[in-house]
Amino acid sequence: MKIPNLIILLLLPVFFTTSLQSSPSPPHFLKSTTNDTTPKQYFEVTHPLPTDDVTPSCFVSLLNHSFANTYGIPPVTVNYTPPPPTCNWTIAVLEFRAQCKGEQYDRIAGVWIDGVELLRTSTAQPTESGIFWKVRKDVSRYSSVISQSNLTLTVMLENLVNDEFTGIYHVNVSLLFYSATSVRVPLSIVPLESEAHLLNRKLISIENNEIGDKLDQFDRDIVLNSLYPYNKPADLVVPISASAGVNEGFWFRIEDEFDVKTQKVKISNRTYKAVLELYVSFHGNDEFWYMNPSDSYVETNHLSTGRAHGAYREVLVTIDGKLVGDVVPFPVIFTGGINPLFWEPVVSIGAFNLPSYDIDLTPFLGLLLDDKDHTIGIKVADGISFWLVDANLHLWFDCSDVKAQTVTSKVPSMEIQRKTEFELLDGEFEIKGERESEVTGWVYSSAGNLQTQLTEKIKFKNKLKFKDQGTKKEVDQKYKRKTKIKITNEIGQVIESLEVKIKYPLKVSIETKPGLDVDTSVMTTKVEQERSERFYGGKESMVLSHKQNCTGLMVVKGSSVLSGSAENQQNYNYNDGLGCYARVVDVVDGVVVGDDTSSICV
Ligand SMILES: *[C@@H]1O[C@H](CO)[C@@H](O)[C@H](O)[C@H]1NC(C)=O
Ligand SMILES: *[C@@H]1O[C@H](CO)[C@@H](O)[C@H](O)[C@H]1NC(C)=O
Ligand SMILES: *[C@@H]1O[C@H](CO)[C@@H](O)[C@H](O)[C@H]1NC(C)=O
Ligand SMILES: *[C@@H]1O[C@H](CO)[C@@H](O)[C@H](O)[C@H]1NC(C)=O
Ligand SMILES: *[C@@H]1O[C@H](CO)[C@@H](O)[C@H](O)[C@H]1NC(C)=O
Ligand SMILES: *[C@@H]1O[C@H](CO)[C@@H](O)[C@H](O)[C@H]1NC(C)=O
Ligand SMILES: *[C@@H]1O[C@H](CO)[C@@H](O)[C@H](O)[C@H]1NC(C)=O
Question: Might you give the EC number(s) for this enzyme (predicted)?
Fold first, then answer.
């Protein structure tokens, strides 16, 4: 670690109550370096898309907009026109480019087509010399929406610009369309050269190859990045989002644990598969929910902070009031979070492309296929202000009516144990949760009478410690989810089985000591985090492990970082069964000192 050497613009703490995402109280900070002279490119570590080096069949520029003083005003909405019929496509990639210069907090943004969310993203904090970045996301799963005409595209990014906060976010949104025929598996995700038989695959044109349907299908699945449950894009995507979207954004703003957002849906009785995809982000007093102590701690110590209510949160989904699914979201840290010096120019896991979460509702089709309205509800267990949540209901249709029945449906509430021990400002808070669900339902369609059984085990544990009169905070959170999906036919043969394993461990420590100058403090910060997701199916598999390890120190005054030093190491490993992609990035004080990519499978 280097000696702190960044001179950082001093900003007085302000009452920034209007900020959508930011709050003046730590650990959400504002940084601004004056050191760079040229605009710098920021990035999130991720694997390249198979389409990255391919010329698109066509390109549609959707929006060029500068988000200046956009707080409290309606989001930007423009007409959406699909690509012309002459454009041959099966793969669609959304590109979100942004640039910003000056002083500004990080912001949250969403992109929707007719209320269907395509991307949840957050911005990087700019510098005086400017920053820019690009997010590319395969949005082929929304093909049924993207191919329609007469729709609207909405982008919401609430920003505040004044004499102090000068950063305007300039955003360009476009869609790139590719035909499957044109896409080859790029070298970057092809295994070692020595494995010639595999290497040859990159030369195989996906749709027209003559090797046979099996390989053709296999390759296309991978190329389309369409693992379960989107092996094939849905026939219809119904937004479960705020009806006031055109004026206030399509996300539901959830203020507390009693705040249930609902929407009525009536689905076609030709539906043979249904998946609810949730988009989630947390802000304000819940931006760092995993570090929130109990309410009793805050009350007993007469603290003014609203960041409390314990450190367990879950997004819960109901159908007609009945619990059908739950998600403990990946704790995405925005670029003002914990120590903003960590996130330049590499941002935190998921900051530019927040993960969405799938709840397979197929076994619940028995509750939905009756030509009647049903109410989908979304709430946040233990949540405090505020969460931005919405969902897309993906539906797949058969050629004629299907019949369905839900046989077993056991989705219990999380069993939670809490231990709270504190004396004045020091203490320990432990929350443990467990849940085992099992849902079985059959669907009788033209494919036969197929039974889907979904079993799931979840373990959650959060241990939060406050030491040295509360000046040292440590959190150690673990979350594990194992889902098994088994589809059997009439005679009990398993025709598809899939296992999904998710782990989101997180450790954060923040130690605050008085600084040399009046009103300043020195904070020593650490983050250790992983996003681990594994899918194993019959012929498909995907293993992702993305780790980050950050250590740093900063001198702060109010919520402004005056100086500091930080190191961020990230380790990305991706294997989709066809090949591997690995990247190791090391950033010290904003300078990328190591960035190695390889296609060796470990
Ligand atoms: C900018 O930072 C680098 C090290 O990160 C340092 O060598 C250089 O002197 C700094 N430049 C200015 C103008 O402060
Ligand atoms: C955005 O700007 C580019 C470059 O100036 C232009 O080609 C494109 O048509 C613009 N898109 C829209 C939607 O205005
Ligand atoms: C992005 O939008 C700006 C206007 O806001 C435009 O000047 C610029 O050319 C656009 N860039 C691209 C690549 O479309
Ligand atoms: C579109 O793709 C199909 C199948 O690959 C092909 O037959 C057709 O000629 C293509 N059309 C155009 C305009 O390229
Ligand atoms: C487009 O939508 C408007 C309003 O929903 C409707 O009046 C119009 O007929 C639609 N046009 C087409 C071509 O579908
Ligand atoms: C399926 O839906 C259609 C159209 O809404 C309706 O006419 C039909 O009666 C429904 N069938 C069943 C079995 O509910
Ligand atoms: C993170 O860094 C700490 C301290 O350097 C080290 O002990 C630990 O093994 C690292 N963890 C990972 C996952 O790299």
Answer: 3.5.1.52
Q: Is residue 66 within 6 Å of ligand 3 at its C-beta?
A: yes
Three-state secondary-structure class, residue 136: strand
Q: Decide if pLDDT at 384 tops 90.
A: yes
CA of 397: how far to CAs of 362, 369, 373, 547, in Å? 12, 12, 18, 39
Angle at 227 (CA atoms; ends 224, 228), nearest 5 degrees: 140
Side chain identity, residue 36: D
Position 31 confidence tier, pLDDT thresholds 50, 70, 90 = confident
For residue 430, the SS3 value is strand
The CA-based dihedral angle spanning residues 177, 135, 327, 29, taken in that order and rounded to the nearest 10 degrees: -160
Task: Give the model's pLDDT for residue 378.
Answer: 98
Q: Whose atoms come closest to the Cα of 573: which ligand?
A: 7
Per-residue pLDDT at 600: 78
Residue 309 has pLDDT above 80, yes or no: yes
More confident residue, 229 or 187: 229
CA-nearest residue for atom 2, ligand 3, is 64
**223: pLDDT confidence band, cut at 50, 70 and 90?**
very low
Closest ligand 4 atom number to CA of residue 181: 5
User: Distance between alpha carbon 485 and the CA centroid of its chain, in Å?
Assistant: 23
Q: 231 pLDDT band (50/70/90 cuts)?
A: confident
CB-based contact 311:292 (threshold 8 Å): yes
Atom of ligand 4 nearest to the CA of 180: 5
Q: What is the CA radius of gyration of the chain?
A: 24
Return the higher-pLDDT residue of 549 and 601: 549
Alpha carbon nearest to ligand 4 atom 2, residue: 88
Which range has the worst mean pLDDT, 29-38, 172-181, 468-477?
Answer: 29-38
Residue 36 has pLDDT above 90, yes or no: no
* pLDDT-wise least confident of 3-17, 151-165, 298-312, 400-414: 3-17
From ligand 6's centre to the CA of 62, what distance in Å? Answer: 38
CA of 425 to the centre of ligand 7 (A): 29
Angle at 441 between CA 481 and CA 362, to 5 degrees: 65
The secondary structure of 445-511, three-state, reads ECCEEEEEEEEEEEEEEEEEEEECCCCEEEEEEEEEEEEEEEEECCCCCEEEEEEEEEECCEEEEEE
Q: How far apart are CA 450 and CA 488, in angstroms?
A: 6
Pocket test for ligand 2, best of 61, 81, 153, 172 (most atoms within 8 A of CB): 61
Closest CA to 386 of 586, 248, 534: 248
Cβ atoms within 10 Å, residue 112: 30
Atom of ligand 1 nearest to the CA of 6: 2
**Closest residue by CA, ligand 2 atom 1:** 64
Could you tell me the residue range of the domain that residue 76 belongs to? 5-598
Place of tokens 């947390």: 282
Number of domains comprising the chain: 1
Average pLDDT over residues 387-409: 97
pTM above 0.70, yes or no: yes
Peptide bond into 85 cis (omega under 30): no
Rounded CA separation 123/184 (Å): 32
